[in-house]
């Protein structure tokens, strides 16, 4: 396909995303499933060119920015506190699933070499970061459960890719060493973390010197790709390099970047991530036609292997359930200290976590990248496509009803007590008041900024009263910000009326509209938080 036509096709796909997203939201259908089905429908249209997805390009184009964005906005305190469970999922569950799938594949398809069986297990074992994030969006989940699933998706690709490389090497050379494989895994992981740390600290210091928000945002995208490519070129884990780099920048952003940079970067990255995630699911659907065509040309008999593939998918799903349930309850039963610090979770928690493991773009790209001469390549590709479609269309569409049907209860890790939002706001405003008081007070006892001193003193008093009220003033606070939003709408309507009448210049409209926008954003953020708190929602995911 000529480059111009490829670009036109990308534009068409982006245009298709909008109606599919609207339909999914109207029908309360998971957007990931709607976009995947939309891609399948597009692939079946007469005259639609066959889409050939380059696996290397797909990985390097989509994976680094999506991993970087997720890591950048990860709450490091929660990630670190739950690192034990995250590693159990990201490494333990991936290895266990690889083993189970490999053994089941060998039993059902005896002609398939052991290396091919374990390669298949490694391809389908790690749940996808994009699929996981899409599945969790907007769901009423405990904050810790979200941290575990998103934290797992940041790391598990590295474990899956290492196991896949070991299996492919064994299949092509006929040589496999368990000790050598474990050593390579440690080297790749440690190297990826080291590269990510070095890149994160060096780049964050360099970005802090850029004063222009546009330059910082453009550079942040380059950093995402550069950290991945650098890790791969140094023969360590590019996935871990990108994740660690994103974590470092996310932690340092508060002191290094200006408010304008953070606001604009959040908006730009949100749009970019939305487009990339949407394109991934559409491309998964579009790729089905090409994969089926390739399997048909190679003489692969889908009907012959369909029962085996179905059994492998059941084994893949069951392995995750077994691992998560075992580590959730058996480990706590055997270790009283662990049980004391982290009690047994409600049964609904491991069930939801097990069902939320969906496959996606990484599994597809790795399956397409299996060498032509590798034994069982067609079977691996067919089983992987089945796993991706089954997880997105079945698990993705049933996850919300499952969560609503099963009470998740309390599932939080005991940590050091921290200030609430209201208490932290009161402390912050009190510091602002002290700064204004120091600047306003004159040697003769007069006030240089009497109105500001009064204003900040009043704000500090109200904030302190609200922090100590235990929700007593929530209703009044919502009414307060509703009134601000009503005044904001009235001011905006008057400004637009003056503009339409030709009484104000466009530059004046833009300046005043920017002020109104910031006021509205601030008021809506507080109002939305108050509404979420009133209904028991988690502030971090309201």
Architecture overview:
The protein is mainly alpha-helical. The chain has three domains: 3-405, Na+/H+ antiporter like fold, CATH 1.20.1530; 421-470; 484-542. The protein contains 21 helices and no strands. The chain has helices at 3-27, 31-43, 55-72, 76-81, 83-108, 114-124, 129-136, 143-173, 178-208, 213-233, 238-256, 259-297, 302-334, 336-341, 348-355, 361-368, 377-405, 421-440, 450-467, 474-500, 506-534. It is globular.
- Strand percentage lies at under 5%
Distance between the termini: 44 Å
List the uncertain runs.
533-542
**Domain tally:** 3
**Residue share in helix:** over 70%
Q: Mind sketching the topology for me?
A:
Elements: H1 3-27, H2 31-43, H3 55-72, H4 76-81, H5 83-108, H6 114-124, H7 129-136, H8 143-173, H9 178-208, H10 213-233, H11 238-256, H12 259-297, H13 302-334, H14 336-341, H15 348-355, H16 361-368, H17 377-405, H18 421-440, H19 450-467, H20 474-500, H21 506-534
Helix pairs in contact: 1-2, 1-12, 2-12, 2-17, 3-10, 3-11, 3-12, 3-16, 5-6, 5-8, 5-13, 6-8, 6-17, 7-8, 8-9, 8-11, 9-10, 9-11, 10-11, 10-12, 12-17, 13-15, 13-17, 16-17, 18-19, 20-21
